[in-house]
User: Fold this.
Amino acid sequence: MLVFGLKGGLEAGARFIDSVRLFSHVANVGDARSLVIHPASTTHSQLTPAQREAAGVGDDLIRVSVGFEDVADLIADLEQALEKAAGA
Assistant:
């Protein structure tokens, strides 16, 4: 499990999620495949920004669970998604 924040908040998080190719965009963990989620726009979207911050779920938060895919492919996918999230 890997959790990190993106500069750019909700918009950057949405761009990142829209850009991944190998990762599945789902809320569960413990799968054999790689998963990614932006909690502020999915599982915690019903909360106000203040409630999300109090829960430790900032608008910039991305959660990644790595599965059994090829490591080089996963790294390349994350790199290209990070570039798109940054607006590059």
User: Anything to note?
Assistant: The first helix runs from residue 9 to 19. The chain has one domain: 2-85. The longest strand covers residues 61-65.
